[in-house]
Amino acid sequence: MSAVGASGGSPLLAVRSLTKLFGSFAACNAIDLDIQPGEIHALLGENGAGKSTLVKMLFGVLAPTSGQILWKGEPVRIPSPGAARRLGIGMVFQHFSLFEALTVAENIALSLSPGISLSKVAEEASRLSHLYGLPLDPKAHVADLSVGERQRIEIVRALLQNPELIILDEPTSVLTPQEADRLFETLAKLKAEGRSVLYISHRLEEVQRICDRATVLRHGKVTGACDPRQETPASLARMMVGSDVASVSAAGTNTKGDVLLEARHLSVPARTPFAVALKNVCLKVRGGEVLAIAGVAGNGQGELFDALSGEYPVPDAGAVSIRGKAAGNLGITARRLMGAGFVPEERHGHAAVPALPLSDNLVLARNQSDRKTFLAGGVLGVIRHAVVRIASKRISETMDVRKSGENPAAGSLSGGNLQKYIVGRELDRQPAVLIVNQPTWGVDAGAASRIRQALVDLAKAGSAVLVISQDLDEIFEVATEIAVISEGRLSDAYPAHELTREKIGLLMGGMYGKTEGEVAHAH
Amino acid sequence: MGIIEAILLTVITAATPLVLASLGELVSERAGVLNLGVEGMMVMGAVLAFAVTQATGSPYIGVLAGIACGALFSLLFGFLTLTLVANQVATGLALTILGLGISGQIGEPYVGMSGIKLQPIAVPLLSDIPFLGPLLFRQDIIFYLSIALVFGLNWFLFRSRAGLKVRAIGDSHASAHALGIHVIRTRYLAVMFGGACAGLAGAQLSLVYTPQWVENMSAGRGWIALALVVFASWRPWRLLAGGYLFGAVSISQLHAQALGIGIPSQFLSALPYIATVVVLILISHNRRMTLINTPASLGKPFVPDR
């Protein structure tokens, strides 16, 4: 009665032309997927490919716009996570919902039905954690645990519901390699028991290592279904990032200027247990160049931005130079005064104060670099509101920021419009050096192209632009040079026209160093 | 009765209202609600307990009236901060000012009237133990209740499922909501428990400590109770110890005067707050202590997504 899966049997879970629209944007477009009992099924794709949207629909967090979900051949509706759990679907989220002040056993007990005593929960959790090789101390406080241990709690919590299908969303993105190896052993045990696993990842190596089948998503559509063991990393990468090798647009001018931004052997130890250490990062950006840094989230992008912008200065002054002057030990304001501009990743609360109007956000960012223009009264520093408003209006007009009213609170703007304003705020100064982290993250297509155009134009005017991005389309649109960051190490920068998506995909997947051989092998 | 015994008895009487009021606040804060209205709820409990005792002639009915009054008064705070999502700090301060005002109004006819004291109940056999007997087992019902509550709450918070939910809400109301725990309902109950305890503490003041009504008779004990919760790092056992320490310090002003020891009384009355500051510094020094002991969502309003 139900569709027959690739390996012949009746699938545990089947998805038929499942679609999710956000407005007119199709996050998932007619997705078909079969998961057989007892298989580890990989869901591969770049950021924004629709993986998370798909699993959120499977776990009852989002409602599909159209299409069908079949559980053991029967059409089902999954209105809530509770309903998904009752069917036999468990999920381990990428960001955990744990109570830090409570113990492991208490955290687990809270998600179980009432009537089970705490000591019983501790016993059961302890038993399960040993059975699946997930060592956990039920009495430990979550606040004291590593990310890997926290993930184990989530897994044990899911296992206590005895699920037939376990969905893991990017489970290794927060794990050390040793922790990841442990997780793979656990997954093998689950598979041996006949449970199915839906494994979401963009790391090709581990997908090839542990998964039986793979479904590849790109731009909300299924672009391939395969046995990852029969594929090469290159062929998987091609499916993931698209077989069409981009027609590269060299954005900058051909005349290369001086080196305006440079990092020399920049090493920064990890500030928190969850941060990535930067290891011997070297980069140079000349005037007229756009250097794009590609990489999978959490490989040191945030840390690199912090070190380059001066949000966290480094002791070695020479590790970062701006316009030829050592700036490593200087803070953000000092670096701004040297002619640099910065756009951090998070719009709300980092690049802008959501509750304050746009004009105040403008003063907050530029009160030192534009002191003479924006402030009056010498040491008193009285804000010249009229001047600031004119500047704010100029930025809005240049960047086509659509807003309600003349000077609304930053938080009331849509993500795309606020991002245009924030980027425009820096561009308005005509900085010699601009460093942008994820310039178009979560921004609609129109705003994204406006922002990218502005970055390219700035480089054409002779500035050095450094863009950190996870979006390969974006990188190929704006970059003249491309480097890839992986586990805190930065690859050499290649001219954009010399790189293919395949090669970047391999570098991103942590296959740094093996690239040449692997790619050659694939052809 | 020896002098030491007499002094210890006054310490117990001084510590009991502090322990009670702060126990209530501890539960409220464990659920993530900061209620700065303890002083107001306490003084309301005191005046109602006194008035009802005068009307009925029974201090026991007076005690019940004090409890009910504190709980009802805190319900006002709950409605404003939980349902209408008003700022907890401002609302708590307003509650204190309101309580001090209304109690003065209600209590006006009772000023100078001699009260009816809640009589001690001697526990058979145990009260005959030399020294300890008269101290611990020839006390009034409110003292026994205060000790029972410390035991009970320690069990409730750290052993029972309901208590676990209270702590979970205080740690992260968003996660608790996602798990299907009723955040607002639980917070209402916690706030009302806090009010009831403050009302009982007030009843102790006007029926045991000084069995009469004096305007503003809570005399800053509500603020000491608030400091005590932090001092105890939100744990009932430490709170009991801290309550007796603070009680001893506050009563020592009188004894020091009587014995002619020249310590400025202002210094002694400031001691509980100094001790609290020291404890806060010690806690905040250690990130782990802070994470595990402080309710992370304390004072933050919760508005569920619809």
UniProtKB/TrEMBL annotation, chain A:
Q: Which GO terms describe its molecular function?
A: ATP binding; ATP hydrolysis activity
The molecule here is called Nucleoside ABC transporter ATP-binding protein
Q: Which Pfam families match?
A: ABC_tran
| SMART domains recorded | AAA
Assigned keywords, A-Z: ATP-binding, Cell membrane, Membrane, Nucleotide-binding, Repeat, Sugar transport, Translocase, Transport
Cited PANTHER family = CARBOHYDRATE TRANSPORT ATP-BINDING PROTEIN MG119-RELATED, GUANOSINE IMPORT ATP-BINDING PROTEIN NUPO
For membrane topology, the record states:
Peripheral membrane protein
UniProt family annotation: Belongs to the ABC transporter superfamily.
UniProt GO cellular component terms: plasma membrane
Q: Which CDD domains match?
A: ABC_Carb_Monos_I (cd03216), ABC_Carb_Monos_II (cd03215)
**Superkingdom, according to UniProt?**
Bacteria
Q: From what organism does this protein derive? A: Shinella granuli
| Annotated ranges, domain ABC transporter | 13-244, 263-512
Cellular location(s): Cell membrane
**What is the first-listed, main subcellular location in coarse terms?**
membrane
Keyword presence, Cell membrane: yes
Cited InterPro entries: AAA+_ATPase, ABC_carbohydrate_import_ATPase, ABC_transporter-like_ATP-bd, ABC_transporter-like_CS, P-loop_NTPase
TrEMBL record, chain B:
What is its subcellular localisation? Answer: Cell membrane
InterPro entries per record = ABC_transp_permease
Membrane topology annotation: Multi-pass membrane protein
GO MF, one example: transmembrane transporter activity
Which keywords label this protein? Cell membrane, Membrane, Transmembrane, Transmembrane helix
* Alphabetized Pfam families for the sequence: BPD_transp_2
Q: Which GO terms describe its cellular component?
A: plasma membrane
| Segments crossing the lipid bilayer | 31-53, 60-86, 141-158, 188-209, 267-283
* Main localization category: membrane
Per the UniProt entry, the signal peptide is none
Its name, as the record gives it, is: Nucleoside ABC transporter membrane protein
Give the source species.
Answer: Shinella granuli
